[in-house]
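Ops channel
N.P.: pipeline sanity check, posting one input/output pair.
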């Protein structure tokens, strides 16, 4: 699965208590050769380490341990290296397994607990900035889920939708003297009302920025008969045939996506400036970590590729270099940024990812505080 599948409902399921042991395996991966040659070896070593951990754990019975290993082997066999992104997360119990390939790196780690480790999934989802794109015409509507570099058509919430096709009615044409205009036809209006109703359901379940693609009359009528399009962050006024491909859609959306990203970056910069003006600003990992732990952060901004290994010491975080990293040191946190992102979201804060170096003077991470 990819980050797009991580809905609020699924995250709640993943965080629910599981029969011990729930095994979480994470590791960095590579998208292209020759770097990806090392991924298979690294995965085999982690699987072996997981087996040793299960064998040595007195809380894990023989049958349970064997069942977990079997599920882990199935997950590894199903993992497709051709779909590798920047990290791999495998979640396993004696009864199930899940494979997640994420566009954000994660450290090598095997964790046995009574729940799955979800911080890397949550941070990757936040960084991906998923959006909805609705393509609409007088007789067809499709919903696409996308991120900055990928999209796919969704079959959820009733989508895709096609208007019922009625045979020509010569008697009706004789009465009115001509065929009715598509966008003044009541059947078209009713179809677009249905589109709006289905779209509102999807947005209520999984709120995201919405982009609209269609001819101007179609979009105008959808605005007129519905309620969901008012929150759209971008529009592309162009025909949207039923066979629109994800790649073609992304090409058409690119200017709107870039415009929205520039506007978004300016909004975030303005919010951080306002926070500095009222002395409610935190900058740098240590300050932001403290603010998140105290639930004082209302907005957390993180550079796209910022990662930091730290040692937690007396309520503070001390950066640790790769040379000084001791895997046996339990105070070391290799993915503290992802941990912080998950904690911030859990506390009700907004988390946004911004361009690399845009927060350089603030230590790559900053927060606007509630108080």
């Amino acid at each position: 699965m990819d980050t797009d599948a991580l809905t609020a409902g699924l995250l709640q399921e993943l965080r629910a208590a599981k029969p011990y042991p729930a095994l979480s395996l994470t590791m960095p991966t590579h998208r292209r050769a020759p770097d990806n040659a090392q991924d298979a070896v690294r995965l085999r070593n982690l699987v072996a380490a997981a087996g040793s951990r299960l064998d040595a754990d007195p809380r894990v019975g023989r049958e349970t341990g064997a069942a977990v290993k079997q599920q882990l082997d199935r997950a590894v066999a199903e993992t497709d290296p051709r779909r590798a992104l920047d990290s791999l997360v495998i979640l396993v119990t004696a009864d199930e397994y899940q494979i997640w390939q994420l566009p954000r790196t994660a450290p090598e780690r095997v964790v046995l607990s009574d729940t799955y480790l979800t911080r890397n999934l949550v941070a990757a989802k936040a960084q991906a900035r998923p959006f909805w794109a609705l393509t609409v015409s007088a007789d067809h509507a499709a919903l696409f889920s996308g991120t900055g570099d990928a999209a796919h058509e969704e079959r959820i919430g009733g989508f895709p939708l096609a208007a019922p096709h009625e045979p020509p009615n010569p008697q009706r044409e004789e009465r009115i003297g001509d065929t009715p205009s598509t966008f003044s036809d009541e059947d078209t209006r009713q179809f677009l009302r249905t589109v709006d109703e289905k779209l509102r359901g999807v947005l209520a379940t999984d709120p995201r920025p919405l982009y609209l693609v269609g001819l101007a009359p179609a979009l105008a009528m959808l605005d007129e008969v519905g309620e969901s399009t008012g929150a759209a962050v971008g529009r592309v006024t162009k025909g949207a045939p039923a066979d629109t491909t994800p790649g073609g859609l992304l090409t058409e959306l690119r200017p709107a996506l870039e415009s929205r990203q520039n506007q978004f970056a300016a909004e975030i910069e303005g919010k951080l400036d306002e926070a500095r003006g009222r002395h409610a600003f935190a900058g740098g990992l240590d300050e932001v970590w403290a603010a998140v732990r105290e639930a004082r952060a209302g907005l957390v901004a993180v550079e796209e590729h910022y990662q930091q290994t730290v040692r937690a010491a007396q309520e503070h975080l001390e950066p640790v270099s790769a040379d000084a990293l001791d895997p046996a040191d339990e105070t070391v946190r290799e993915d503290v940024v992802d941990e912080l992102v998950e904690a911030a979201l859990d506390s009700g804060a907004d988390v946004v990812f911004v361009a690399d170096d845009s927060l350089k003077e603030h230590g790559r991470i900053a927060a606007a505080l509630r108080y």
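N.P.: looks fine end to end. The chain is about 40% helix and 20% strand.
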